[in-house]
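Predict the assembly for these two chains.
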Amino acid sequence: MYLYDHYDQAMVDARVAEFRDQTRRRIEGTLSEEKFRPLRLQNGLYLQLHAYMLRVAVPYGTLSGSQMKMLGDIADKYDRGYGHFTTRQNIQYNWIKLEDTPDILADLASVEMHAIQTSGNCIRNISADQYAGATADELIDPRPYAELLRQWSSFHPEFLALPRKFKICVIASDTDRAAMRLHDIGIQIVKNEAGEIGAAFYVGGGMGRTPIIAPLVKAFVPLDELITYSEACLRVYNRYGRRDNKYKARIKILVHELGLEEYSRQVEEEFAHLQTLNIEPPLAELERIKTFFADPAYETGLSDDLDLSNPAFAAWVKNNTAAHKTPGYAIVNISLKPVKVLADGTKEAGIPGDATGEQIRIMADLAKTYSFDELRVTHTQNIVLPHVRKADLFTVWEKLVAAELAEANLDKITDIIACPGLDYCTLANARSIPVAQKIAERMADKAEEIGELKLKISGCINACGHHHAGHIGILGVDRKGLENYQLLLGGCEGADTSLGKIIGPGFDEDGIVGAVEKATQVYLANKEGEERFLDTYRRIGMNPFKEAIYG
Amino acid sequence: MKIITGNDLKSGAVTWWNGAAWSLHVNDAADMGDEAAAVIAAEEAARRVNGAYVIEAEQTADGIRPAHIKERIRALGPTVRLDLSLDPTATPDKVL
């Protein structure tokens, strides 16, 4: 994985020193909150319901063991013993003190991490396929290009005051595991008819109050013009994106209002101009970056055989591991959505995306010992060990079981994305986490029978919980001071991205749990063959679900 | 009643104005009536609080109950982690 050079380290260290001075001046009183607020936000520090919240960037979701260990140590030393992995492949801490923040940033800098550009109207953390570099179904590893985009977008003077925040995703597989087309710019690395590798640009996607699937703006950009074309896309947005209305300021609104043809024309014009300025980073820099993403030293001649005589282990292998490109290896998904069975038989679901400091350190140790010192954070709020020998899977599973990290529920109805919601977030209108927990507890016994069902919950229209893209989506709203939950069906991220549709009037907290259960019953009664929930919904439409839920 | 809340500048902790100083406990909050604006201006100027504002609340047998669920969650802690609440009697029902 990428290692800082002295420029990277010097920039991050300088930012820590700068923020230390800004914090001192705020506490001493020479900086007002009005002036300090944008400075702290540029360093990922929000003020939330209970305390300051610090959002730490995990570039394209990739972490080393020592970085992961530091995240666990920060949870224990500065927070209340846990952290929350987010849908931007980042981590957030909910109980941070302003006076501690410069020290936290210094600790992060010591392991080549920071919180820069995790807030504000700038280019945010670049996201990517969590299986990058490990999966057999990708064209090439997209991470060198994600890293190039990270370097280009970090402190880019032209793009630090955009009309709104800006999110870029890079994948290199037809199996989109990163919700690529729901980003401001989604880049898919593709091969053209001549067999050359390039990038397809999808621009103007996003969720929030106006969900839009990004249209294809350019089918093939040569990789040695990736940055130049990205800059052209951003320049047109920066010039014409609306600054008068924050709800219409995202690039999706500009592309929609200009029309795809006109936006593309303007980008082409800007692209032609930028090509004359020779702004593309030198090829040598890309080649230097690529060396950091070379394959680890895989063993050869390993067997793919597994002893699956332990049923719990077999279930975990079936649900939580994925095919690796190298024989004898597997990709391991660690679910952060536990559903514990208590002594009296009742269920107790965990908080989606939360992990204790100790659990984070255990995952760090597992990565060091069994996964070439590498982990990934997924946008579904889980963790990946990308390169585990199949011969080590049983040992890894046993250690995960001991740490309560072995829930075998990837992409099942209990593997729920949930934003922090009203329990933590100042923007939220309703709580997300308790709804996720109640659904997980109610549906745990049926999860295996139901199969793949992606359920996503947001506590407000900003859609941090990706409810538009859930096979079942739930949106929490405030109805006359009471929490109310709208049910959406039919959303999907990935190669066949679609947006969920609201089924009808909303429900209270218990009502929405019952409505979800009824939706699954309609699916099970109507499924044909190997259909997933989404397939059945697409075939039979909304009405059977509506009749069962409201009838 | 009208009570004042904010976040402690240095720690970010939720605080409540008790008439003379800031408390971590909502039950210490004082009914400030029309005096709130002056208190907020003075306390923010003194950098003892961040983003102070007035909320509606009522005195109940169990203590002071903010009118809106968001403020009750601020007062008692996340409903999903009441083990972190400063109020040992906090329950989800009390928050809701």
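Chain B has a mean pLDDT of 93. Chain B has three helices and five strands.
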